[in-house]
C-alpha cells in the first residue's frame, strides 16, 4: 500500500491494467486493417476492448471503419482460422489456372509458409511473372499482357465468385463499372502490382485471405525469395547485404551508395552473389 499512499498508484495494479490493455489490443488487431495504434486509440477514446464492443460502437455510429476494416470485422472468425495445406493448394491452383488462361505459360508460384512446407497457412500468397523467354527479354506485347494480367485476372475471379471481397487494389477501379482498368499502356498498369483480398472455394469452405502479386522478369527471383520468407530469414539476408554494401529487397539487389545493381535470374544466383550456401525453402525458418 506504500506505493498507493505515496504516488496515488500501485505498481501491481498498473501491471494488471497494462496486461488488460495488451489483451484488448490483441483481440482488436485480429481484425484485418486494425493495427496496434488504431486498437489502442479505440480502447482509450471509446472504451472498446472486445470485438463485441467494437461491433456495438460501429452500430452506434461512434466509430467509423474503413471498407477493408468492415470486411475484416465481418469475417474475423473465419480469417483467423488456419487452412490445411490441401486447401491452400486448391486456391493456388485456381489462381494459376485463371492466370494462364490470360497469359499462357506465365510463371506462377504459391509462396509464404506454403512453399516452406508448412502443413497449414494463415493466407495464400501467389506470385505471378512472365512466361519463359528464349532471349530473357520481353517484347512490347509481352509487357502489355503482363501489365493487364492482374486487372483481368481479378475480373475473372470475381465473375466466378471465387473472390468475395477486395481489401487493397493495385489501383483505383473505374467508377463507372466498379471494376478494374485493363489498359496495359496506362501508368497504373506498371509492375510490380499487388492485390489483397478474400476468396472462397465453395459453400462448404471458409473465407480465406489471398494475396496476388505480379512482378516483371528482372525482379521475379528477388520477389520469389522475399515472399517465401520467413521474416527472420529475410531480415538476416538484408542485414548480410547491408554489411556487404548492398540493399536487398523484393525488387532487387542494389548498391547502397552510388549506382549499381546485380541481375539475378534465380534464387540460387542471389545466394551465390552474396556468398551464401544455398538453402531450400523449408530450411529458411531460422
Automatic annotation (TrEMBL):
SMART domains: POLXc. It catalyses: DNA(n) + a 2'-deoxyribonucleoside 5'-triphosphate = DNA(n+1) + diphosphate. It is found in: Nucleus. Residues 122-142 are annotated as: Disordered. One of its GO terms (molecular function) is DNA-directed DNA polymerase activity. One of its GO terms (cellular component) is nucleus. PROSITE patterns: DNA_POLYMERASE_X. It is an enzyme of class 2 (transferase). GO terms for biological process: double-strand break repair via nonhomologous end joining. Keywords: DNA damage, DNA repair, DNA replication, DNA synthesis, DNA-binding, DNA-directed DNA polymerase, Nucleotidyltransferase, Nucleus, Transferase. Residues 4-285 form the DNA-directed DNA polymerase X domain. Its EC number is 2.7.7.7. Belongs to the DNA polymerase type-X family. DNA polymerase that functions in several pathways of DNA repair. Involved in base excision repair (BER) responsible for repair of lesions that give rise to abasic (AP) sites in DNA. Also contributes to DNA double-strand break repair by non-homologous end joining and homologous recombination. Has both template-dependent and template-independent (terminal transferase) DNA polymerase activities. Has also a 5'-deoxyribose-5-phosphate lyase (dRP lyase) activity. PANTHER family: DNA POLYMERASE LAMBDA (PTHR11276:SF28), DNA POLYMERASE TYPE-X FAMILY MEMBER (PTHR11276). This is DNA polymerase. The lineage of its organism: Eukaryota, Sar, Stramenopiles, Ochrophyta, Dictyochophyceae.
